[in-house]
Structure formats: structure tokens, C-alpha cells
């Protein structure tokens, strides 16, 4: 799983060290040498798990699909975004960490009652 590109559809075989990586940043994090450039790239489809080669010098729009399963592997990359959120248990189970800002309504007895007799008794 690539932590740099969330929707990576293929793994790429690095031409320099012959190892599989999901992106160039994964290669840079694991290796000390720079990623070598090559005209022919070897891909591994994550959907059908089959490898295929593409000549990058004559790359066309039809080459954006896996030749084995027609998986569209050239997508706009979704990168992880920093999010601030509450870490803890499921709020439906234990909500002690969340402050409830709602105010409990206090019931007060009515000052004036509907009945005139009761009102007269209160006044004296």
C-alpha cells in the first residue's frame, strides 16, 4: 500500500534495482540511489495481478488501460490530506470525551394559572 498516492492502480518496477514500488516517492524512501529513467516501463496491475510493459516513447491514450483486465490505471492521484479529528473510541459506545453544549431546559411552574380562583388565592 502506497502512503503517498491513495488510489494507486499499478506498481512500477524500478529499472535501477529491479524492485516493485507503488510510486517514485516510495522508491526514494526505501533506497539510497535515485530512480533511474527508462524508455520502457514494467507495470503490475493491482486488479488482476498481471505484469505488462509499456514503451513510454510512444505512449498513447489507449495505453492508460491494463491490457489484461482493462483496468484504467492512469487516474488523478489522491494524496493524503492532514485532518484534525478526535481519536478515541466510537462515540456511539463511549461519548465521555465529547462535551455536550446543549443546555438542559429547566421546567418552572407557571406564575399565572388558567383558573381565576387559584389566582385569587395566591394574591390573598
Structure overview:
Helices cover 12% and strands 14% of the residues. The N and C termini lie far apart (82 Å). It has 124 residues and is α+β, with helices and mostly antiparallel strands. It contains 2 helices and 4 strands. The mean pLDDT is 76. A 4-stranded antiparallel β-sheet has the order 2-1-3-4.
Key features?
single chain, 124 residues, alpha+beta, four-stranded antiparallel sheet, 2 helices, 4 strands, elongated, Znf_CHY
Secondary-structure map:
Elements: E1 10-13, E2 20-21, H1 24-30, E3 40-45, E4 51-55, H2 116-123
Antiparallel strand pairs: 1-2, 1-3, 3-4
Pfam family, one: zf-CHY
Keywords: Metal-binding, Zinc, Zinc-finger
Organism: Mycena belliarum
Number of helices: 2
- Identify the quaternary structure here: single chain
The beta-strand count equals 4
Q: How do the SSEs run, as a string of H and E? A: EEHEEH
**Amino-to-carboxy terminus distance:** 82 Å
Q: How would a crystallographer describe the biggest sheet?
A: 4 strands, antiparallel
Rg, rounded, reads 32 Å
Helix coverage percent: 10-25%
Helix-strand category: alpha+beta
- As a percent range, the share of strand residues is 5-15%
Task: Report low-confidence residues grouped into runs of 5 or more.
Answer: none
The whole-number mean of residue pLDDT values reads: 76
Shape: elongated
Strand order of the largest sheet: 2-1-3-4
